[in-house]
Design brief:
Blueprint (H helix, E strand, L loop, with lengths): L1 H11 L9 H12 L4 H11 L4 H4 L1 H7 L12 E3 L13 H13 L6 H18 L5 E3 L9 E6 L5 E7 L1 H8 L8 H12 L3 H5 L3 H16 L7 E2 L1 H29 L2
Parallel strand pairs: 1-2, 3-5
Antiparallel strand pairs: 3-4
């Protein structure tokens, strides 16, 4: 009954933000905390406290305030046609994530400010690599460029989106999930998928990167220039958004548990 009630709430709140928003992202972190070891949880709370909305927006906030010591490429995964990481110039999401994890792992050798920054970076980039709009695949040009397509909005009507950004498509048009409170969002994901934590969080960071790339490629196979996105496609995208956020939370927990010992 509780599961049904919460799901109904999320379905009805049409004016709230979409899932890949500051509140939704914070819900992913709350979900992760439900699966942290006592040691990992104590370290996270020591540096970040128990609320995470500002932490989830940390890298973007630095960019907006022009205080970033990195480029926007830090948010993106660059993969080859087999979904293996490409060796791009500078830091991408994977390189920056691995560097931040090393700071967390060797936290006793770093200042509190450096560890806090590293934890925030890990959170931000684990969210980024599970968001299809940040995955760029070598042989799929429209995974990293604008394109024109049509979207069915009713049984008899379609709307054309010209030269539309892939990022805006995935985080906006493909996502009608409603999020209005981080804790409730986390509880809903836990109720639906908590029993599958071990299954959904198994593997290594680089295996997760390849898995995310393969999932994004399947989606991009039916969302491409001049395609028509059907009502059924839109419904399935909501499920994909929901599942990818759950994967992000579970894998974030597994990663922190492995790193903080």
């Amino acid at each position: 009954m509780k599961k049904i009630f919460l799901s109904a709430i999320f379905a009805m709140v049409a004016l709230s933000a979409g899932a890949w928003c500051k509140t939704g992202n914070a819900g992913v972190v709350v979900l992760a905390t439900k699966h942290l070891t006592p040691k990992a949880l104590s370290v996270v709370e020591q540096y970040l406290g128990t609320t995470y909305e500002d932490d989830c927006d940390y890298l973007y906030l630095l960019q907006r305030k022009k205080k970033a010591d990195f480029t926007k490429e830090i948010h993106y995964l660059h993969l080859d046609k087999d979904f293996q990481p490409l060796n791009v110039e500078g830091d991408d999401a994977l390189k920056a994530l691995e560097k931040a994890l090393e700071v967390v792992r060797t936290r006793d050798a770093h200042s509190a400010a450096e560890v806090k920054k590293a934890l925030r970076t890990v959170i931000n980039l684990m969210l980024d690599i599970h968001n299809y709009s940040n995955i760029r695949i070598e042989n799929i040009p429209h995974s990293h460029s604008n394109f024109t397509f049509k979207r069915q909005v009713s049984e008899y009507k379609t709307t054309t989106y010209k030269n539309y950004k892939w990022a805006n498509y995935w985080t906006g048009l493909s996502n009608s999930l409603a999020v209005f409170h981080a804790d409730l969002w986390a509880e809903d994901m836990e109720l639906h998928h908590g029993a599958k934590f071990a299954e959904m969080s198994k593997g290594t960071l680089r295996e997760w990167v390849s898995d995310n790339g393969a999932k994004a490629a399947k989606h991009l196979a039916y969302v491409y220039p001049d395609s028509v996105i059907t009502l059924r496609d839109c419904l399935m995208m909501d499920f994909e958004n929901y599942d990818m956020m759950t994967y992000a939370g579970f894998r974030l927990a597994a990663l922190l548990n492995q790193t903080i010992r």
